[in-house]
Amino acid sequence: MPTVVLMDVSLSMTRPVSLDGSEEFQRKNLAVHGLNMLFEHMASNYRLEFTTLMAFSSLWELLVPFTRDYNALQEALSNLEDYDKTCIESALHGVSNVVQQEWGSACPCQVVLVTDGSLGIGKGSLRHSLLTLKQRGDDKKFPLPFPFPTKLFIMCIANAEELQMTDAMDNLEELLRISGGDGQIFTMEGPLCMKSVQALFGRLIDHAYSPFHAVLHCGNLSSDVQVFPRPEPIVVDEEVEPMPRTVSTDLEIVGFIEIADISSPPVISRHLVLPIAVNKEVDEVGTGTTDELEEEPSASQMAGKSPNFCVLLHGSLKVEGMVALVQLGPEWYGMLYSQADSKKKSNLMMSLFEPGAEPLPWLGKISHLGPISEAAENPYGEDDSKSPFPVQPPVKRSYAQNVTVWIKASGLQTDVQKILRNARKLPDKTQTFYKELNRLRKAALAFGFWELLKVVADLLERECTLLPDSAHPDAAFQLSHAAQQLKLASTGDSQHSAFDHNIVPMHTDFSNTEK
Fold it and tell me: What are the VWFA domain coordinates in residue numbering (predicted)?
């Protein structure tokens, strides 16, 4: 998940901060100290994260394009210059342009806005931008919400009391709400000093940049891994009392399946799985570059000399063309697979399915899958000529049955016209007439479309009055009988509106059956 760091370099950031027993600092110095702390943390734990640094005042500037070189980011921080007034709207337009140019509109992104809480003055200030939101044309649209998924974190080099003395906090909260609300505002606690700014960025790191360490198990084999980026909690809407579901730190491989059987399943997120402490010997298998993954030397040397299950798993999945089904928690599964980054390099990836016992319908319930050796006969055949998938459902699906569906008005009109055509050919088409009439009646009852029954009844009564003198006497009786039955059904009477009840032809001395 790429990160955009948006640094406020307006004049208000140069306001001095008095530190007891030391030299005088500016708010900008505190912000730089906090960002250096963030970059150092990411260099150790998020080496694969792409990060860009932008500066803004009344205009915005791209200081460092998306990179994994945190030394370049820290060097750019040390060379920041001071500019004029604050214009957050202009900066957000810049973020939108930079992210879309590099990643498009589908890649989720985290934006870290570092400011002192000053909204700017006059036209271009955040206050003015929010007041004129509903008075804009499409050509001057406010940049939020971004066209790509975003988490906005606002880092205020000010304490909450200072922000609440004006309307700054209210405006920043409104900015966060417009962005989609998926983020947070962080303020400094206590006096403005180095210790407070460290605590400020420490809270951001704990919230958004803490590494996710887990243990990957397969039988008696296991390996410590880091999952990148950190899996987000999932809330299942279908539950009576929705609770966030989190990925367990114990990932259990429950089986292996061919790529052709699992195909391209729907997933909610994709993550890179990295073995902890690897070196060149691991890199040759394709888990990543040495510089990106290597930890402290002693851990690296140990990993290089000792077997690593994660590396074995990755190589096996790549060679055999299979995926591993992994349990993430109670009735929640995902899959591990090898994905090529280039011709010479591939990564071990993990995709998360929707929570549930049956996330992929064609596989059936994951808990019902078992090893081929336990089957009475090979489900793939002796020569791999067949497949046990898709699993056939025990009950025939409703969409596989002959049901009436009215998606468009033309479909309903066709069914009504079919009834009227048969009505004009009574008594020769008596059986067909009642068959079509009962089909429409059941569909109307299923949809609660009571008005349709009454309207069709009126149409049948009208057809009865329009019968020519040469018409068979039984036609009038059958039309009147059918109209009366439809009217009774439209009242909701339990006897006549039962779904399984069928209208049968009226027995008369003139009754005739379809030839």
Answer: 3-117
Burial class (CB in 10 A: 0-12, 13-18, 19+), 103: middle
Check residue 299 and give its pLDDT: 32
Q: Peptide bond before 427: cis, by omega within 30 degrees of 0?
A: yes
Identify the CA nearest to 182 among candidates 140, 209, 225, 151: 151
Smallest CA-to-CA distance from 110 within 39, 8, 208 is with 208
User: Which string of b and e fits 29-66 if b means at least 16 CB within 10 Å?
Assistant: bbbbebbbbbbebbbebbbbbbbbbbbbbeebeebbeb
Class of domain 2-209: alpha beta
CA distance 7 to 15: 15
State how far Cα 52 lies from the chain centre: 24
* pLDDT confidence tier of residue 19, bands split at 50, 70 and 90: low
Query: What confidence score (pLDDT) does residue 151 get?
Result: 93
Average model confidence (pLDDT) across the chain:
85
Going by pLDDT thresholds of 50, 70 and 90, the confidence category of residue 345 is confident
Tell me the CA distances in angstroms from 25 to 9, 21, 74, 486, 490, one per residue in order: 15, 12, 19, 86, 81
3-state secondary structure of 108: coil
- Which residues, in sequence order, are bridge partners of residue 62? 54
Q: Looking at the chain, how many residues does it have?
A: 515
As given in the structure block, the two tokens for residue 116 are 């002192």
Distance in angstroms (rounded) separating the CA atoms of residues 31 and 8: 9
Q: Residue 251: beta bridge partners?
A: 216
Q: How many Å apart are CA 377 and CA 233, to the nearest integer?
A: 41
CA distance 285 to 85: 52
Contact by Cβ (8 Å): 478, 431: no
Helix (H, G, I), strand (E, B) or coil at 444: helix
The yes-or-no answer to whether 2-209 and 211-234+247-278+306-394 have a common fold is no
Q: What is the mean pLDDT of residues 25-50?
A: 92
The reported pLDDT for the residue numbered 3 is 96
Q: What is the CATH number of domain 211-234+247-278+306-394?
A: 2.40.290
Check the CA dihedral 132-138-139-145 and report its sign. Answer: positive
pLDDT, position 500:
78
Tell me the pairing of strands 16-17 and 25-26.
antiparallel
pLDDT for 427: 86
Q: Which long-range contacts (CB under 8 A, 24 or more apart) does 396-403 make?
A: 403/443
* Domains of the chain by residue range: 2-209, 211-234+247-278+306-394, 409-497
Cα 418 to Cα 127: distance, rounded to the nearest angstrom? 64
For residue 397, what pLDDT is reported? 60
Do 430 and 514 contact (CB within 8 A), yes or no? yes
Nearest CA-CA partner of 71 in 47, 98, 103:
47
